[in-house]
Amino acid sequence: MNNKRGKKLNSSFQSDFFTKNQRGQVTIFIIVAIIVVALAVLFYMISPRLGIDLTPAAKNPQEFIKTCIEEDIEESVERLSLQGGSVESGNYFLYENNKIEYLCYTNEYYRTCVVQQPLLKQHIESEIKNSIQDQVDACFSSLKDSYEKKGYSVDLKPGETKVELLPKRIVSTFSYEVILTKAETEKYEQFSVILNNNLFELISIANSIIEWETTYGDAETTVYMNYYHDLKVEKKKQTDGTTIYILTDRNIGNKFQFASRSVAWPSGFP
């Protein structure tokens, strides 16, 4: 009988002990959480006085500009790639809701086409530059405002925007001068954004196809795919004698498409 009472007392003691222990752990956890939150709030309040800048971009103007303008450059490149290299073209073929520019064209029958953009690379560089210029100015203005709000004195001198199509990349350079003065003076004279994009290579192939079009009125696309295994070349013939060429990088999906009308035959001609 005494054994049973002892066991009950022991069981009751253990239950109370563990219950109190769990409550104690919860209380300690709550206290620690309150301390952590209080320290975080305190740190946030005193960090400006310590000169600590919690915004990484504010310490790096280059990253600020890259973040601000990179998406606009990508959108411009994609749009131009789908439209034959021009933002607005007066001579285009409407294909799948895209106004695809004629890079080689004749309105006569039986005749080979004439090249419409002899300096295609330079033309596309200029088109990208013109399409992003307003946003470039807006980004540098935003940079100036951002630093001034953080107590900097900012001297901004607008400069030249340059876009270059290079092997496997597109480099946009902004020769804007930015001088930041707070405790010290920092000077920045050039900013750049680099896109990993092989538009340079696709344009080179497009120029080669155009040479075929001006000489023979057509191009043998399998030659390119046999030589460049990562390249897909599609040739879409239209009823009016137009040909849509679509060049696609099989690995990354980049494409460039353009239109040509050369040695066209009248409707109904066998």
Q: Topology, please?
A:
Layout: H1 2-46, H2 61-82, E1 92-95, E2 98-105, E3 114-115, H3 120-149, E4 153-157, E5 161-166, E6 169-174, E7 177-181, E8 185-188, E9 191-195, H4 199-216, H5 222-227, E10 231-237, E11 242-249, E12 255-261
Parallel strand pairs: 2-12
Antiparallel strand pairs: 1-2, 2-3, 4-7, 5-6, 6-9, 7-8, 10-11, 11-12
Keywords:
25% strand, single chain, elongated, three-stranded antiparallel β-sheet, 45% helix, alpha+beta
Shape: elongated
Order of helices and strands: HHEEEHEEEEEEHHEEE
Find the structural class using helix and strand composition.
alpha+beta
| Terminal CA distance | 115 Å
Question: What is the radius of gyration?
Answer: 33 Å
How helix-rich are the residues, as a percent range? 40-55%
Poorly predicted sequence stretches spanning 5 or more consecutive residues:
1-15, 46-58
Description:
The strands form 3 sheets. Strands 1, 2, 3, 10, 11 and 12 form a 6-stranded mixed sheet that branches. A 3-stranded antiparallel sheet has the order 4-7-8, with helices on one face. It has a domain of 52 residues. It contains 5 helices and 12 strands. The protein is of the alpha+beta class and 270 residues long. The longest helix has 45 residues. A hairpin with a 2-residue loop joins β1 and β2. The protein is 45% helix and 25% strand. The N terminus is likely disordered.
